[in-house]
Specification:
Blueprint lengths: L18 H22 L3 H6 L1 H10 L6 E4 L6 H9 L34 H15 L5 E6 L6 H13 L3 E7 L14 H6 L2 H15 L5 H10 L1 H16 L3 E7 L3 H12 L4 E7 L7 H5 L26 H15 L3 E5 L9 H6 L4 E3 L4 H13 L3 E7 H4 L3 H9 L6 E5 L16 H5 L6 E3 L4 H13 L4 E4 L23 E4 L4 E5 L4 H13 L4 E5 L2 E3 L3 H10 L2 E9 L4 H12 L5 E6 L9 H7 L4 H13 L3
Parallel strand pairs: 1-2, 2-3, 3-5, 4-5, 6-7, 6-8, 8-9, 9-11, 10-11, 13-14, 13-16, 16-17
Antiparallel strand pairs: 10-15, 12-14
């Protein structure tokens, strides 16, 4: 067995290797990725599919002087390994270790911080323009997947790049998938073009001519039909990108170094916007990931031999609870529709898609479109439920404001992965949604304390005649008993879970159970501590707030959101308007980015677990006169 990887400390070490050695290196890199991700979890299938492409890019281009900008960063693990981080790679996504995404603070080879889709072309074009302005010639390469290319921002970047004609290389890593299978007109543009009259007339004339060849005509025509898909793939994509002003090259095989390196060397000598179309296989080299790339897109720790997760049986997740409830609601109400943005599996809607295919819409990585599409459906009397991760709803904020809330349309937003998400880090934490949704007129905003309450909130949202948002955390619920009968919650009414007289803790969502545990410990210390499951971020239960503000010596709010503009800020505003002088102590996430680590570690670090709440409340209460 060769050990080439241990000699690779930077990309320049690659450039002395032969093609045979590069093949061996690719096998070692795959092994290293697989061994690490099996233990830590991570984005496996995308990175396995991009190994040869990554090696070839660093082999041909003079990085980091030449810039490589990765889109999203799911496919960047080989890049990290080859740029001096092979030993540290085993710490990936762990607290204090490497980020799971490219990060400028981590390495000069990470030229742009990413994590969300479709940013690479615009960022790389900015760098190409900067190169012209500064007089420092360099090559700039954007590596983008076919799923990300479907999003509007990528199209905008392509359009402007073709307009200003700067030196920009876009590498289209085409594995025919993003997270869920791709959808959209652009991804199926080949079918649209080949259904046109001109193409079909030409095809029919060729087939008729071949059939007339004596003796062999029928056989040649049959072979021609078999090769038709290949010809389409060669011919049609070039037309699309040529219309954007790009010099299109490809498609080429993405797992053969000879082909990759020769084409990249040729492209390096060209000027202007160029698009290289590379065909790769997601999950390459690991059979379970090749067979099920959707599952292995973002996976937790697993057994490498079987590909099965190593975690034990856990309570139903919030995501799964949402999916189950959607099926129940859709069965009774034909107005209920489900919309997701390229995340069918991630948002728990696989079964809904199977059972109600005509009422399910995966719009691809297009969150802005998803929201306004839902608004149009709602305007016509339907009840669309838009399931998007909290961090990705940020991309469609204007549409939420302008197209939903201003028109008071009954669109339900299900904000999965709200709060701290763990190992994916700053780009994926859902820590801003309370702050950016709470100010919007007409919206009702809820957060469940557990998986049982989630189903009731979704049922309640369906009864309300306006915009509704429900935020819920990543991961398993608490294993609580599940009510069989869905019930309507009174809008804006909180729930007192524990009485008290000295302190009243108003908790929301994932912080309710930790607040209850902390209150029990405070009681043992002689501090009578009430706990309120606030349920509603907007509207607040003002009656409950006034009662406790009048009777308690101190109020506390706990939230898994940024403190600025968050739930605690909403309570503070109401106390000020009421002229209340009761002290308020707010617990949440301070004004900083939260690094990657486990959710447990992150909650402990920012004092919103049971230990943190107990310690903070005890200390604050001791200072009250």
């Amino acid at each position: 067995m060769t050990h080439i990887l241990e000699k690779i400390h930077a990309p320049e070490d690659l450039r002395t290797l032969s093609l045979e050695q590069l093949d061996a290196l690719a096998r070692e890199v795959r092994h290293h990725i697989l061994e690490t991700v099996a233990r830590t979890g991570g984005h496996l299938a995308s990175s396995l599919g991009a190994v040869e492409l990554t090696i070839a890019l660093h082999y041909v281009f003079n990085t980091p002087h030449d810039r490589i900008v990765w889109d999203v960063g799911h496919q960047s693990y080989a890049h990290k390994i080859l740029t001096g981080r092979a030993e540290a790679f085993t710490t990936m996504r762990q607290q204090g270790g490497l980020s799971g995404f490219p990060k400028r603070e981590e390495s000069p080879y990470d030229t742009f911080n990413v994590g969300h889709s479709s940013t690479s072309i615009s960022a790389a074009l900015g760098m190409a323009q900067a190169s012209c302005l500064s007089g420092q010639p360099r090559k700039v390469i954007a590596v983008i997947g076919d799923g990300s290319l479907m999003a509007g921002m990528a199209i905008e970047g392509l359009n402007y790049a073709g307009h200003i004609k700067k030196d920009l290389i876009v590498v289209l890593n085409d594995n025919e998938m993003s997270i869920s299978p791709n959808v959209g007109a652009l991804s199926s543009s080949l079918s649209r073009i080949i259904s046109g009259q001109a193409y079909n007339k030409f095809r029919d004339e060729v087939h008729q001519l071949l059939h007339k060849i004596p003796g062999i005509g029928d056989s040649v025509a049959r072979i021609a039909r078999q090769g038709e898909d290949f010809v389409k793939g060669l011919f049609v994509p070039g037309l699309i990108f040529d219309a954007f002003g790009f010099n299109y090259i490809g498609p080429i095989l993405g797992h053969r170094f000879g082909v990759l390196i020769e084409n990249l060397k040729n492209i390096k000598q060209l000027n202007g916007p160029i698009l290289l179309h590379v065909i790769t296989k997601k999950g390459r080299g690991y059979e379970p990931a090749e067979k099920d790339p959707t599952y292995f897109h973002g996976v937790g720790p697993f057994d490498r031999g079987s590909g099965k997760p190593v975690a034990g049986i856990a309570p139903v997740s919030y995501t799964a609870m949402f999916g189950r409830t959607m099926l129940r609601l859709a069965e009774k109400d034909a107005r209920v529709l489900a919309i997701t943005a390229g995340m069918t599996t991630g948002t728990g809607l696989e079964e809904f898609e199977k059972k109600y295919p005509g009422r399910f819409f995966d719009v691809g990585i297009a969150e802005q479109h998803a929201v306004t599409f839902a608004a149009g459906l709602a305007a016509e009397g339907f009840r669309p439920v838009v399931a998007i991760y909290s961090t990705f709803l940020q991309r469609s904020y204007d549409q939420v404001v302008h197209d939903v809330c201003m028109q008071n349309l009954p669109v339900i937003f299900m904000l999965d992965r709200a709060g701290l998400v763990g190992e994916d880090g700053p780009t994926h934490h859902g820590l801003f949604d309370i702050s950016y949704l709470r100010p919007l007129p007409n919206i009702t905003f809820m957060a469940p304390r557990d998986e049982n309450e989630l189903q009731h909130m979704l049922f309640t949202a369906l009864q309300l005649n306006g915009p509704v948002a429900i935020r819920y955390p990543r991961g398993s619920g608490y294993g609580v008993a599940l009510d069989q009968q869905l019930r309507m919650l009174q809008c804006g009414r909180a729930e007192e879970l524990r009485p008290g007289g000295d302190v009243a803790v108003f908790a929301i969502g994932a912080t309710v159970y930790p607040a209850l545990e902390a209150a029990g410990r405070l009681e043992a210390d002689g501090i009578r501590c009430a706990v309120v499951n606030s349920r509603f971020i907007k509207p607040l239960d003002l009656q409950m707030l006034r009662v406790h503000a009048a009777n308690a010596r101190m109020l506390v709010t706990v939230e898994e959101n940024m403190l600025q503009g968050g739930f605690g800020s909403a309570v503070l505003e109401q106390l000020q308007e009421a002229g209340s002088a009761v002290p308020l102590f707010r617990l949440g996430i301070p004004d900083r980015l939260v690094a990657h680590g486990t959710q447990k570690q992150q909650r402990a670090r920012y004092g919103i677990d049971a230990d943190g709440i107990y310690t903070a409340v005890r200390a604050a209460f001791a200072k009250i006169p």
